[in-house]
Amino acid sequence: xxxxxxxxxxxxxxxxxxxxxxxxxxxxxxxxxxxxxxxxxxxxxxxxxxxxxxxxxxxxxxxxxxxxxxxxxxxxxxxxxxxxxxxxxxxxxxxxxxxxxxxxxxxxxxxxxxxxxxxxxxxxxxxxxxxxxxxxxxxxxxxxxxxxxxxxxxxxxxxxxxxxxxxxxxxxxxxxxxxxxxxxxxxxxxxxxxxxxxxxxxxxxxxxxxxxxxxxxxxxxxxxxxxxxxxxxxxxxxxxxxxxxxxxxxxxxxxxxxxxxxxxxxxxxxxxxxxxxxx
Length: 279
Ligand code: NAP
Fold this sequence. Notes:
Layout: E1 9-14, H1 22-32, E2 38-43, H2 49-55, E3 61-66, E4 80-81, H3 83-88, E5 93-96, E6 102-105, H4 108-119, E7 130-133, H5 137-148, E8 154-157, H6 161-171, E9 175-178, E10 192-195, E11 219-222, H7 231-238, E12 242-244, H8 247-262, H9 270-277
Parallel strand pairs: 1-2, 1-3, 4-6, 7-8, 7-10, 8-9, 10-11, 11-12
Antiparallel strand pairs: 3-5, 5-6
This protein binds NADP nicotinamide-adenine-dinucleotide phosphate.
């Protein structure tokens, strides 16, 4: 350890990592708030994780974002895991504490809710059931968050049904599992509708569940944000839903980490969106 002051460093670890928008986002906030620090993307193999976590704090890192494929593995390497990260079974934000311990949290669910609150202030999650298409890693954060904000029922369907069944055992009796083939039937009376599958993402197959049964006035949101306006959102809007794109979730999930590492709560606003979109 050196005893002279050092610039705070943070970054994102994953593999591959070149596509990550996090460096553009945190880099923008660092410049905007005049903070002398750096945020660095690092491609780290699974086998190298323990050594990386031992060395990075000694090199001046104050924390990390964690992305695919390390979000689950990292829980076993952290010293303190928040309850929500444990429930979700994955962490996306690490804090390297001064006492040497590694604190792991998951901010995806909070980012998901903050995006909806900001862009659809009239949304009331308690007004009716929530529909969740997909049961992958991101869906776990979404379902945990929807239950926390008072959704009375979670209707979930996944192409691979057993993955959705696990949600019922992990998140409780509010979760109702439906067949993927009839997923459109879940929409009746729903207040909130979320696509958590990767369908509709650039380069992936299109989302094809019929949305005719969407309640006009429901809130629909897509976790996919490339393209920004997915076919799912276009069809949901045509069916009368209020729609919110997924980019805001990415921006909001990043804010708590930035604040902990660099000491400034960053603004999520149009300028932030543009900085990430134009990077
Ligand atoms: P994941 O764990 O790999 O889950 C992928 C999900 O998509 C599963 O439910 C999978 O179903 C479903 N799926 C994939 N191909 C399908 C197909 N051809 N037909 C039907 N279902 C299909 O991925 P994830 O981490 O949950 O991420 C899901 C999406 O959310 C990705 O596009 C990711 O970029 C996005 N995301 C966005 C944010 C944000 O901040 N906006 C945050 C996290 C994730 P099976 O179980 O049957 O394979």
